[in-house]
Amino acid sequence: MKKKFLILYLLMITVFTVSCSDDEGLQDIPIGAPSNIDAKISFTQDNSGLVTILPKAENVNFFYADFGDGSELSDTISVGESLSHIYAEGTFDLTLVAMNAADRQTESVQPIEVSFNAPENLEVTIENDGVESNTVNVSVTADFATSFEVDFGEEGVESVVSGSIEETLSYTYQQSGSYTISVEVMGAASQTTTYVEENFFVEEILVPVVPAPRPSEPSPNVIAIYSDRYTPITVTELPTEWSDTNFEEVVIEGDNTIKYSNLAFTGIVTDYGNPTDLTDMDYVHFDYWTPDASALGFKLVNTVIGEEDMEFVESITSGQWVSVKFPLADYAMDRSQVTQLLFDTAGNRATVYIDNLYFSKEVAQEPTTSAPVPTQDASNVISIYSDTYTSITVSELPTVWSGSGYEEVSVDGNNAMLFTNFDFLGIVTDYGNPTDLTSMTHVHFDYWSPNAESLGLKLVNTALDPVQEDIENAGALTLGEWVSVDIPLADFDMDLSAVTQLIFDNLVEADADDTVYIDNFYFYN
């Protein structure tokens, strides 16, 4: 089988080479190997053994398959297309091969069991979600089963949900109460197996039992009002004395949360003497949880010039945390001096929990222009990485112990280092010939990141016993643009005469998935 895959692979690469040879735009695009290969397998319930396979993966252009039953390899299929195959009864290893235009391929093996017996040894689990109100989860195990369908039994609405046997199917009822839930389990056989549960009681949850989702926006792009995730700005009134609500702060699994009960409207004052400038922000975000609200709006007020506007949540969802993100462009007002923020239930009093209230800026995910061209005289530079200077030879870039993905990419015709899933990344100059930096006064690098919250550079002298090292912080980060960093070498409290390791670090204790571009990394005097 491997030999057959190799022959077909070489033919495919030949086609891609010919078709892409004149496409200069593909030459500098970094594409990783295909990953997360999976397939939706559907059996025709007619004892025919006909199976439909819908493959999916990331970073993929096309697929082909070895069906595992001795038949020929499949033709190639594009992303989103399916292929069919007729199996005899038995158990087979379906091998899917995902390929892309970067000449990379990944294989995945998925077992397929074909039986013309009706599903048997059926076990059905039906339970209330426990977190989302009026929500029920159903899972099934059975021999000779591939899929199942659940009729959740709510009249007047479409309450039938189907999925593969490995899935847990969920449904949210409009109201709590007793319902009859029917489960039909299918395989490759024409005969199915059913299970019925009568008078299952669907529970309503009146208070949140888990905290709001943790926001993922990088803190340099956030103005926070209330959130444990970020450091909020200081507000002078929360709530205001003229708010029409009961207010308390509650703790949900260690997360501070605002609870408004009997809420008509409530206000927050940032600072009348120092209004908040939101002109550089793109969105307002908050998470809400309510058992009974029918409307919820969020108002911005500029009391300096007397302008205000309010946006309403389009459709309220009860009994679960919902994240709301309003574009600030929807607010028809001057946002340069905002002093008041208000939640409003449009005259329908309700209980509403609020968390993660903040404003955020949208940032590009990759640079479109190259880093600034350095201007230091080359005679005064020891370069590690830069198209402008002749860099010294380094023995490891990156080191095998780096906690980061690495590749060299072209940005607007200029080479740059790209760190993905960035935790830390090391460079070794030369253990046998350490780099003497005593004649240099500064270290320089340019960074670009869409999401990093901090960045540091460590210098290490392994020639000494004990080893000497020190790390310096690049300072508050600016995201979505190239930023030049110059750190005096005098700030590094160590012997700089025999430096062997250079380590970029995100300065975060836990693992992170930051993306950072680095260019023009050099020392100078």
From TrEMBL:
CDD domains: PKD (cd00146). Gene3D superfamilies: Galactose-binding lectin, Immunoglobulins. It comes from the Bacteria. The keyword Cell division does not apply. Residues 1-20 form the signal peptide. Residues 38-116, 121-199 form the PKD/Chitinase domain. Keywords: Signal. This is PKD domain-containing protein. It comes from Psychroflexus longus.
